[in-house]
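Reopening this one. Same input as before:
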Amino acid sequence: MPDGKPAGVPCVQLLPDRRCAIFGDPSRPAFCAGLKPAADMCGESRGQALAWLARLEAATAPGHAG
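Same output, byte for byte:
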């Protein structure tokens, strides 16, 4: 996504099984490569991890007042 990924829009590289199609590829965006999982990000379930990512998307959306 050359102009970035809008908040709430799935990445074009997301496979049907929700894995990244370009994981480990040099063309992977720096933001993605720099996103390091941590206990607070992953939580104790898939739902908690997805909620954390949703908050990240909302906080980094254009026009977000911070």
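So the earlier flakiness isn't reproducible anymore. For the record, The two ends are 24 Å apart (CA to CA).
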